[in-house]
From TrEMBL:
<comment type="similarity">
    <text>Belongs to the glycosyltransferase 1 family. Bacterial/plant glycogen synthase subfamily.</text>
</comment>
<keyword id="KW-0320">Glycogen biosynthesis</keyword>
<comment type="pathway">
    <text>Glycan biosynthesis; glycogen biosynthesis.</text>
</comment>
<dbReference type="Pfam" id="PF08323">
    <property type="entry name" value="Glyco_transf_5"/>
</dbReference>
<dbReference type="GO" id="GO:0005978">
    <property type="term" value="P:glycogen biosynthetic process"/>
</dbReference>
<keyword id="KW-0808">Transferase</keyword>
<comment type="function">
    <text>Synthesizes alpha-1,4-glucan chains using ADP-glucose.</text>
</comment>
<dbReference type="GO" id="GO:0005829">
    <property type="term" value="C:cytosol"/>
</dbReference>
<feature type="domain" description="Glycosyl transferase family 1">
    <location>
        <begin position="292"/>
        <end position="439"/>
    </location>
</feature>
<dbReference type="InterPro" id="IPR011835">
    <property type="entry name" value="GS/SS"/>
</dbReference>
<feature type="binding site">
    <location>
        <position position="15"/>
    </location>
    <ligand>
        <name>ADP-alpha-D-glucose</name>
    </ligand>
</feature>
<dbReference type="Pfam" id="PF00534">
    <property type="entry name" value="Glycos_transf_1"/>
</dbReference>
<dbReference type="GO" id="GO:0004373">
    <property type="term" value="F:alpha-1,4-glucan glucosyltransferase (UDP-glucose donor) activity"/>
</dbReference>
<protein>
    <recommendedName>
        <fullName>Glycogen synthase</fullName>
        <ecNumber>2.4.1.21</ecNumber>
    </recommendedName>
</protein>
<keyword id="KW-0328">Glycosyltransferase</keyword>
<dbReference type="GO" id="GO:0009011">
    <property type="term" value="F:alpha-1,4-glucan glucosyltransferase (ADP-glucose donor) activity"/>
</dbReference>
<feature type="domain" description="Starch synthase catalytic">
    <location>
        <begin position="3"/>
        <end position="235"/>
    </location>
</feature>
Length: 479
């Protein structure tokens, strides 16, 4: 089976969040199921600098204003198709925002181009390869099935995966004229959304199947609280909607082989984690007082519950804990954590930005990871925590609820608990979860059992890849 995956970021070439990890890991996970997946992504400057020996295999004389090429590249085993369109992607800043943190004003054009290129590839643009199915990710690729509906690839099945329905790609109606779509596409059946143009809306209307990244999130987005305005549309497409929990790349995230940590270890050699704890403490300037180290690796936003976490920092410190934070986002939240680090030197540490090697060390050296998200489609950091014996403390929502077994009395008695859940997302509820964690930490055998049980969890792509393979096969069988 030949599958075209379309994503705006792919690890290890470029990453702003979990989407990149998924797009980078899924092709490897699908290979054992007889699926050859080629991934189309934009040719950002960092991508063009990293790829080696690209081969031009197709192109466009005019793709939204200038010529563009399709490059075939093998990068660390990833079979990539890179859209080389300098007029759209060769610029300073990140993949979505400029150096000041503002969205590029032509993002609609940039990601319409990615989607149109994908649709043309599905329709036979490349003389040597054509996919049997197209799998697109999030709003940046969601116009692909719309373009396919009006082009030669209308019969090729499509899967749209929602990684976070809060990001929808909604633009004013004036941009429709630039999208190279027929007039009838600006209707409720396609991209029209309350008078605007909705990229994700169009994909939800036209994709053959819709997936989210956890079963619980697939149910949550059918409600007004989590559906972000799409609950009615999704309910109408209920038979095409499913939730498939993400996995992680267990070769990249493996405490037995990880080159980013101070000392490798396994579930049977947890004492070796101490070297990572010391390295993490040195990085953040922590004192040597006993007590659990809690970590956060996250975007610092309201969605991630970082405002709630900021409220309980005093409690963490006063109870003998330490807090290491890695992330960026809302300036006010960044300032709150920076202020806490200044208020509690040796107890609270803050690293602004994103640092892949440091994120590995934090999972290997901290005792617990805090994830108080108000909604979380899947979440990957709790899976990394399980893999590394860094006990997750999570809100009861979405993929967090699906992947962490709460350390209640029954789960502890059955020796199946892997972390702590709490609800609702409030300072009082998080404080209660922290009290439970502190109590468990003071019982070394119990804490080691939580760590070991988490490390036994299957966080790989194996089961999820099987479900994707079944979904692909069912769509192709429908003809």
């Amino acid at each position: 089976m030949e599958v075209l995956s379309v994503a705006s970021e792919v690890f290890p070439l470029i990453k702003t969040g979990g989407l990149a990890d998924v797009a980078g890991a899924l092709p490897f996970a699908m290979k054992p199921h007889g699926v050859r997946m080629r991934t189309l992504m934009p040719g950002y400057p960092t991508v063009m600098q990293k790829i080696v020996k690209p081969q031009v295999i197709g192109g466009f004389d005019n793709l939204f204003g200038s010529p563009a090429s399709i490059l075939a590249v093998d990068h660390d085993g990833l079979d990539l198709l890179v859209l080389d369109a300098p007029h759209l992607f060769d610029r300073d800043g990140g993949p979505y925002v400029d150096t000041t943190g503002r969205d590029y004003p032509d993002n609609f054009r940039r990601f319409a181009a990615l989607s149109l290129a994908a649709a043309e590839i599905a329709g036979g643009l490349l003389p040597s390869w054509k996919p049997d199915l197209v799998h697109v990710h999030d709003w940046q690729a969601a116009l692909t099935p719309v373009y396919m509906r009006f082009g030669p690839a209308y019969a090729v099945p499509t899967v749209l995966t929602i990684h976070n329905i809060a990001f929808q790609g909604q633009f004013g109606p004036d941009i429709f004229a630039e999208l190279a779509l027929p007039p009838e596409a600006f209707s409720m059946s396609y991209v029209e959304y309350f008078g605007d143009v909705g990229f994700l809306k169009g994909g939800l209307q036209t994709a053959s199947a819709i997936t989210t990244v956890s079963p619980s999130y697939a149910q949550e987005i059918l409600t007004p609280e989590f559906g972000m305005g799409f609950e009615g549309l999704l309910t109408s497409r209920l038979s095409s909607l499913s939730g498939i929990v993400n996995g992680i790349d267990t070769d990249v995230w493996d405490p037995q082989t990880d080159r980013h940590i101070a000392e490798t270890y396994s579930a049977t050699s947890l004492k070796k984690r101490e070297a990572n704890r010391k390295a993490l403490s040195a990085h953040f300037g922590f004192d040597t007082a006993p007590g659990p180290i809690f970590c956060v690796v996250s975007r610092l936003t309201w969605q991630k519950g970082m405002d709630v976490l900021a409220e309980v920092i005093d409690d963490i410190v006063h109870n003998g804990g330490k807090l290491a934070v890695l992330g960026s986002g809302d300036p006010a939240l960044e300032s709150a954590f920076i202020a806490a680090a200044a208020r509690y030197p040796g107890r609270v540490g803050m690293a602004v930005g994103y640092n892949e090697p440091l994120s590995h060390l934090m999972q290997a050296g901290a005792d617990a990871i805090l994830i108080p998200s108000r909604f979380e489609p899947c979440g990957l950091t709790q899976l990394y925590g399980l893999r590394y014996g860094c006990v997750p403390i999570v809100a009861h929502t979405g993929g967090l609820a699906d992947t962490i077994i709460d350390a209640n009395e029954a789960a502890l008695s059955a020796k199946v608990a892997t972390g702590f859940q709490f609800s609702p997302v409030s300072a009082a509820s998080l404080r209660q979860a922290l009290r439970r964690a502190f109590t468990a930490y003071r019982q070394p055998k119990l804490w080691a059992r939580l760590q070991a049980q988490g490390m036994k969890s299957d966080v790989s792509w194996d089961m999820s890849a099987h479900r994707y393979a079944d979904l692909y096969s069912s769509l192709l069988a429908k003809g």
